[in-house]
Amino acid sequence: MGWTTEEFGEAHEGIVGAVLADGSEPKPAYFDIGSGAEMYRTCEWWAYDGRMSRPRAAAVRASCSCGWRGPSSPLVWDELDRDGLEELDVSGPRRDWSEHIRTVERRTVPLPDELAQLLDALEDKLFALAEDAPAAALRAVTVLDRLTRRAGREAACLIEEDGEQRWEDLGRALGVDAHRARSLVTRYLLPH
Length: 192
What we know:
Elements: E1 14-19, E2 29-31, E3 40-42, E4 59-64, E5 73-74, H1 91-107, H2 113-132, H3 134-161, H4 167-174, H5 178-189
Antiparallel strand pairs: 1-4, 2-3, 4-5
């Protein structure tokens, strides 16, 4: 159960990750959660308690799905109950990850002030409309959906036409990795 932001979603999902005594990160831990082919997979600190042939974490740190890692803090298992998952203070790693997200936000391409204000006002009006007239709000959202798909397609076409577009640069401007940036462009290029 990680931390996410609405803007970046799983592109920057943060967790309290495990660090082994040698400073490395353990391989993901898998758990059979019942019948079926799917297994639960995690890299969160609590899975590395030394039981069931898994290594024991020596420290914890904030970890982001983008590859960023925060500073490590020693993990003292003796201070935790055997099943004391709630006892670990994760406020430090959470602050580290939040600062990482602020850094990502600062690197993204800024919206023009006028557009940012317009979007904020639109959000307020749409939520108020949803309370007062849900059908009208749904109609407005449908119009916006068409508008954003058309504008997204226009932007994606222009980006695609720019043969020198570096996916890493676009990803940084959007706060995601190069692969996600390319996927976003492709999504808007495909007919809806």
